[in-house]
Amino acid sequence: MGKIKITAAVASQTRLADGVYSMWIDAKEITDQAKPGQFISVYTGDSSKLLPRPISICETNRDKGLLRIVYRIAGGGTEEFSRYKTGDPITVMGPLGNGFPLEAGTSGKKALLIGGGIGIPPMLELAKNLSCTKQMVLGYRDELFLNEEFLPYGDTFPATESGTAGTRGNVMDAIREHGLRSDVIFACGPTPMLKSLKAYALENHIECYLSLEEKMACGIGACLACVCKSSDRDEHSMVHNKRVCKDGPVFKAEEVEF
């Protein structure tokens, strides 16, 4: 069926941490199609803000037709979203992008699911859908969020830059501290984190999939505002890049250059 744009309704919203909010949206048409790692574009009610905000899908509830986003206030658009109440209309488009390949985490394998900051939310839906053994490594600056929701799906290892919880440092520090090993890596987070994970995966010959965080405009691959460097040539632009919103946001580590 592909992506659709609808005016949905806010089912509920809660504050998880300082500036971090969780919103459930009644959007059955999108929920029925959504896959782990995909995202939606959320439109503001301010006509002066023409571009939607891309936000990863954190979780879905197909029985109730609900999808969940967890986002951090980063500007006027997301600040507006944080004021929405149950029943408020919200215009969204999705599902967008390519998600994580579930077949890479089949039963019998051991996977590392690694999220950094606001790259943590999409890993929750992935954790729910992978059939293999899962280890979750979650990186924060200081305040934790969503970490307890990962516990039913496997061992969870937080890391904080401030040292307030878990390993003091970043996700790579946590991996080394706990001696974690895996057959496959799935990750989402800031570019420095993904760059280090790519190097780690290549050095240790581990299959690795990275979900890139990038500023987006159209969200459908038309404007070329969110390109990243790639090892092969993009058929759309005929240069060595990929459109994060359409070709990604999930890529095999070897596909992208940092």
UniProtKB/TrEMBL annotation:
Cofactor: [2Fe-2S] cluster; FAD
SUPFAM superfamilies from the UniProt entry: Ferredoxin reductase-like, C-terminal NADP-linked domain, Riboflavin synthase domain-like
PROSITE patterns documented for this protein: FAD_FR
Segments forming domain FAD-binding FR-type: 3-102
UniProt superkingdom: Bacteria
Protein residues bound to [2Fe-2S] cluster: C218, C223, C226, C245
GO BP annotations, alphabetical order: 'de novo' UMP biosynthetic process
Molecular functions (GO terms): 2 iron, 2 sulfur cluster binding; electron transfer activity; flavin adenine dinucleotide binding; metal ion binding; oxidoreductase activity
Binding site for FAD: R53, P54, I55, S56, V70, Y71, R72, G77, T78
UniProt pathway: Pyrimidine metabolism; UMP biosynthesis via de novo pathway; orotate from (S)-dihydroorotate (NAD(+) route): step 1/1
Pfam families cross-referenced by the UniProt entry: DHODB_Fe-S_bind (PF10418)
Keywords: 2Fe-2S, Electron transport, FAD, Flavoprotein, Iron, Iron-sulfur, Metal-binding, Pyrimidine biosynthesis, Transport
Similarity comment: family membership: Belongs to the PyrK family.
HAMAP family for this protein: DHODB_Fe_S_bind
PANTHER family reported for this sequence: DIHYDROOROTATE DEHYDROGENASE B (NAD(+)), ELECTRON TRANSFER SUBUNIT (PTHR43513), DIHYDROOROTATE DEHYDROGENASE B (NAD(+)), ELECTRON TRANSFER SUBUNIT-RELATED (PTHR43513:SF3)
Function: Responsible for channeling the electrons from the oxidation of dihydroorotate from the FMN redox center in the PyrD type B subunit to the ultimate electron acceptor NAD(+).
Subunit-level organization: Heterotetramer of 2 PyrK and 2 PyrD type B subunits.
Protein name per UniProt: Dihydroorotate dehydrogenase B (NAD(+)), electron transfer subunit
Lineage of source species: Bacteria, Bacillati, Bacillota, Clostridia, Lachnospirales
